[in-house]
Amino acid sequence: MLRYGLARGLPDEDAQDLAQDTCLGVLRALPGWHDLGRSVWALVFAIARNKLTDRTRARAVRKDLPMGQNSMAALAVVDPRPGAADLVEDDESAGRVRDLLLALPTTQREVLLLRVIVGLSTAETAAALTLTAGSVRVIQHRAVSALRRQFITTPEGAS
Questions:
Q1: What CATH fold (topology level) applies to the domain 91-154?
Q2: 11 alpha-carbon distance from chain centroid
Q3: Nearest CA among 87, 7, 88 for reference residue 48
Q4: CB–CB of 52/8 below 8 Å?
Q5: Under the phi-then-psi rule, with left for phi > 0, alpha for psi from -120 to 50, and beta for the rest, what region is 37?
Q6: Where are the alpha helices (DSSP H) in 2-132?
Q7: Residues 65-106: tens digit of each pLDDT
Q8: Within a 10 A sphere around the Cβ of 158, how many other Cβ atoms?
Q9: How many CB atoms lie within 10 A of CB 130?
C-alpha cells in the first residue's frame, strides 16, 4: 500500500497515512466481506482508491479556507524543507515520466502502477481492478506502446 500511495504522487507521510487508513478500512470491511471468486486484493485496492479520493476531496476543500488573522488555518506550521515527493518532482526526468503517465487513460495508468510500481502479478492486478487477466495484459501492452510513442515524439525539454 505504501508503494501504491507513493506511485500515486503522495508525499511519504501522506502515503504512510493512506496505507494505515487502508489497513484500518480492510479490518473494518473483512467481517462483512464474502468471497465471490475475487481476490481480497480487489477489496484492498478498492478501499485504497476510495481513501485516496477522500483525501483529494478533503484537501480541495481546505484550500478554500479563509486565511484571515483570526483563522486557525493561518496559524498552521508549514515545514519549509522539501519532502521526498518534492525532491522527486524537481528531477526533470521524473517530471517527464509523471507527465507521460498522466497523459494515459486512467485504467492504463492504474494497470501500470499496480504492475510496475506496486509489483502485483497479472492475476492480482486483475482482481484489484475487477478485470480479467487477459484484459490486464492487453491494457498493459497498450499503455507501454502509448508511452513509447509519447516518449519518442515528445522533445526532451518539453513537459
A1: Arc Repressor Mutant, subunit A (1.10.10)
A2: 11
A3: 7
A4: yes
A5: left
A6: 2-7, 12-29, 40-62, 84-90, 92-102, 106-112, 122-129
A7: 555 555 555 445 455 555 655 555 556 666 677 788 888 999
A8: 8
A9: 11
Q: Residue 16 in contact with residue 6, Cβ under 8 Å?
A: no
pTM: 0.49
Distances (CA, A) of 66 to 43, 71, 72: 38, 7, 9
| 97-152 pLDDT per residue, tens | 778 888 899 999 989 888 887 888 899 888 888 899 999 999 999 999 998 888 78
Q: State the residue for C-alpha cell 494515459.
A: 104
Eight-state DSSP code of residue 156: T
What residues does CATH 1.10.10.10 cover in the chain?
91-154
